[in-house]
Every structure is written in structure tokens, then in C-alpha cells.
Amino acid sequence: MDTRAAPRIAMVAGEASGDVLGAHLVSAVKAALPHARFVGIGGPRMRAAGFEAWHPAEALAVRGYVEVLKHLPRILGIRNDLRRRLLADPPALFIGVDAPDFNLGLEGQLKARGIRTVQYVSPQVWAWRAKRIPHLRRATDRVLCLFPFEAPFLEQHGVSACFVGHPLADQIPEIPNRELAREQFHLTAAPNVIALLPGSRQSELEYMADLFVQTAQRVHRQLAGAVHFLVPLQSRETRALFEAALYRHAAQDLPLTILFGHAQMAMTAADVVLLASGTATLEAALLKRSMVVTYRLSPATFAAVKRKGHRLPYVSLPNILAGRFVVPEILQDDATPENLGQALLNVLADKLVRARQENVFLDLHRQLRQDTSTRLVEALLPLLGSRTPLPSEAPVPA
């Protein structure tokens, strides 16, 4: 069969958010090229979309310099195996989904051997690690950007880039139905609902689980029990870590529902969300939910991050996209149960602040809603050496 009609595309997605983006990309390309084959590293959503995973995405889901060092031999072994297989049987295209520390080096090696490469999700070179820009230029044929300001920045530095929008902005309605979500959890009578999202990786739960449990205990006391907590977790391993923290702090009696997944539904039902900085902050913004953002790293990793510097005064995606502080960020040593609890209570009590946040989030939503499926296909098909008419371009039958 002509490889242009049925290309073999290799991909690497290294965590839950990359799995969501990767699954959407696989589905979008398969709608245009039904016989396309996708192989590499991916998670359960990608596999459900028809992806052949040689290694699971969870194998790369490690965050922090010190934490990565512990797993470095295994991660390097996976990358060496992947490189060997792809060079032995070159794909029509390689797409790295986020995970730049893993993907950019691999992309550079593959591109040097004549394989076209795409980085889907720009590294945050506009915020820090600008020295990566020349490497990004050498390693990729194109960068697909989720946010509107990224492509012009990269193009100014000689990197081929295009803005494709964010698929979540296409999928999430502008006005989510909070009442329906609360009905799903039998919480229609609950006076206050708070969603707790301490992270998707085991390494995050190791630093965040105790903090979130103690914060919940404090808020519960301050509200005299008039609150219910929803805790969506990604895996059995992260659930076990969170439940262990509940036992350590004798918090088993908290009015709390632990969920396996269903993060969107939990945030939709909530009045306010406490969450670890990351992609979930964007999801909360698209759901128009007020939030408090926090994060903790190991002291050694945090010191390494500070040495590298960060050119922006904020770290969470809603603040980065808005270009100002819209949601509170309480990080590292400042992230205490007292500070987080007070921030949550402040947001709960101030309906005007919540309304202002929701208006900003609505503007962000409209900027990111770009029919990403179509834009992905338009960006990728030329790199595959084919040009299939998009639905909007198909000839009208006589």
C-alpha cells in the first residue's frame, strides 16, 4: 500500500495531559487518513484511539530534576529502545507530545537521519530556558502551539511554528452545567463543594497529598462541616498515596469522595478548586471555576529551578495566558495548610472576585477555541507528503 495513503506515524506522550492531547491528534488524523498507523509511547486514551503502545506513557511520568535522576537509567533505556526501533524502520513522521526533556533529544537524532519531526506543545522557552531555542530549531520541522502568543515568538527565532488552539477549548462548553454535575454526585444540597486535585503523578502526590489533606481538615473546621470535597485521582497508585495521607492525619471522617478520574465533572460541580500547578489549571479555567493554585517540589529540585530562573512572575497557565495575576498562586515554602485554607475561604466568600475570574476565563476560552482537529490535520498532512481535502474543501456533488 502507498505509504502516503497509509502512513506510519510514531509518537511519544509522557503523562496524562499528553495522553489526552495525543488521543485527540490520533483521532483527528485518522478521520482524514483512516488507515494511518500510530506507534510509540502513549497512555490509555491513545490506545483506545487506535495507538500501538510499545511502552506505556506512565513510564515517563516523573517530574523534578532530583526525581528524574532516580529513574534516569530506566528512562534512557526506553529512549534508546525507541530510537533503535525507529531508525531500523523509519516512520513517515515523528510527533513528540509535550515531554520536551525526553522528546527533543530524540527528535534531533531522528531528524538528522532524515525523519520529519514535530513537537506538539511548545516548551516554555518564552518563560525560561531560552537557550533551548536553537536546539528546538534544529530538532523539529514544525512546532504545534497550544497558545496564541507562542507561534509568533518562535517564528521570530527561526522556528517553524503554528497555533492550533487547545482541543479542550473545543470540547468543553462555554457555560458548564454545575447543577447537573452536582446531581451526578448527589450533592445538590451541599452548601459548599471544593474539588481537590493534588496532581496526576505519583511523585506529585508524595509532596502534595499531606498538604491537601491538612488543608481540607482546616477548611472543614472553619466552615463548621458545611463543605464536601471531591478528589479525582488518576490511578490506583495515586489513590493509595492519598488514602495513606488520610490515615496519617486521622482524616477518614472528612466529607470527601475519592474518584477514579472524572476530574472535569468534579471541577464542574465545585465552587472552588484547589489544584497543583499544571495542565489541570487550564482545564479549571475552561470550566470557569475559581481556583487556588499551589505546588511543592523537593528542596533540591526547587533550588535547581530557581537557579535556572523564570522570566514571568507567575507559573500557572491561567495567569500566563491572561498576562496578570488572576488566580492566587501559593508555592513551595508558602504552601502551608494555613495559607491554602485561608485562600480557599477567601475565594468562597467573595462572589465578586469569582465572577471576575469567570469572565477572564470565558475570554481565554474563546481565544483557545480554534477547531483544533482541523488545524492539526492542516499542519500535519503536508509533512506526510499528502494533501487530503478537508471536509470544508470537499467538492459539492452535482
Q: What is the overall number of helices?
A: 17
State the major sheet. 7 strands, parallel
Strand arrangement in the largest pleated sheet:
3-2-1-4-5-6-7
Helix content class:
40-55%
Unreliably modeled segments: 386-398
Protein model, in words:
- With 398 residues, the protein is an alpha/beta fold.
- The protein has helices at residues 16-32, 44-48, 65-88, 100-112, 132-139, 150-156, 167-171, 178-184, 202-222, 236-248, 263-269, 279-286, 299-308, 317-322, 337-349, 351-368, 372-380, and strands at residues 8-13, 37-42, 51-56, 93-97, 117-120, 142-145, 161-163, 193-197, 228-233, 256-260, 272-276, 290-295, 329-331.
- The strands form 2 sheets. Strands 3-2-1-4-5-6-7 form a 7-stranded parallel β-sheet, sandwiched between helices. It has a 6-stranded parallel β-sheet with strand order 10-9-8-11-12-13, sandwiched between helices.
- Helix 1 (16-32) links the parallel strand 1 and strand 2.
- The longest helix is centred in the first third of the chain and has 24 residues, at 65-88.
Features:
17 helices, 398 residues, alpha/beta, 6-stranded parallel beta sheet
What is the structure about, briefly put?
This protein has 17 helices and 13 strands.
Question: Topology, please?
Answer:
Blueprint: E1 8-13, H1 16-32, E2 37-42, H2 44-48, E3 51-56, H3 65-88, E4 93-97, H4 100-112, E5 117-120, H5 132-139, E6 142-145, H6 150-156, E7 161-163, H7 167-171, H8 178-184, E8 193-197, H9 202-222, E9 228-233, H10 236-248, E10 256-260, H11 263-269, E11 272-276, H12 279-286, E12 290-295, H13 299-308, H14 317-322, E13 329-331, H15 337-349, H16 351-368, H17 372-380
Parallel strand pairs: 1-2, 1-4, 2-3, 4-5, 5-6, 6-7, 8-9, 8-11, 9-10, 11-12, 12-13
Helix pairs in contact: 1-17, 3-4, 4-5, 8-11, 9-10, 9-15
